[in-house]
Specification:
Helices cover 30% and strands 8% of the residues. By secondary structure, the chain is α+β, with helices and mostly antiparallel strands.
């Protein structure tokens, strides 16, 4: 009887030893990260706020800049001389005349005509500048960096001269900036010849 009981104890001990020493299957990665699960109980005294993942936000597409915006990108830039502004406006005018072929049939002369045409009031309905722009004032005029309307002098043959009133904001004074059709600038005694003054008076006379 004692031998039978001893054999039973030995068998039980062998089974227990096998149970604790048997190989265990590898633990899955998700089982070791239960602390990040939203169902895991937080530690005492800790408040957990779950924030749902926000969907990726797609920035609204921006419209491509207009031709005039690209050309006048550095208009009135303080680090550049004011003469550069007149050169950029002249370049914009040249591009307009190349792209809007019918503009040759109705040549533009006054500031307001040019400003309206560049804002889309032209036979091609092509917009070159947006209404709010550094080169435009609220009256629909093209202005210099000091906010004074530019003076346009049409020479014919799609050639123009441009003038800024300069820092004193008064036309026909010694600080004016005058760009010739060939890209040069008038200075000194050549700045205000009588012929140009007469032309400006004719332009301003209704």
């Amino acid at each position: 009887m004692k031998r039978l009981a001893l054999a039973g104890l030995l068998l039980l001990a062998t089974a227990a030893l096998w149970w604790f020493t048997r190989p265990h299957p590898p633990t899955s990665p998700t089982a070791t990260t239960t602390e990040s699960s939203p169902h895991t109980a937080p530690a005492p005294g800790v408040t957990v706020t779950l924030t749902p993942s926000a969907p990726p936000v797609t920035a609204p597409g921006k419209a491509a800049p207009l031709i005039g915006e690209n050309i006048l990108r550095e208009y009135a830039k303080p680090s550049l001389p004011p003469e550069n502004d007149l050169t950029l406006v002249s370049r914009l005018m040249e591009n307009f005349q190349l792209l809007v072929k019918s503009a040759a049939d109705r040549p533009l002369s006054a500031n307001e005509d040019w400003a309206a045409a560049l804002r889309g009031h032209n036979p091609a309905r092509e917009r070159f500048l947006p209404d709010p722009h550094a080169a435009l004032n609220t009256n629909g005029q093209l202005v210099d960096r000091w906010g004074t309307p530019l003076f346009f002098h049409a020479l014919g043959g799609r050639r123009y001269e441009l003038r800024s009133a300069g820092p004193d904001r008064k036309l026909w004074t010694d600080d004016d900036l005058h760009r010739n059709a060939d890209g040069s600038f008038r200075r000194g005694a050549a700045l205000n010849p009588p012929s140009l003054l007469e032309s400006s008076n004719r332009t301003r006379t209704p």
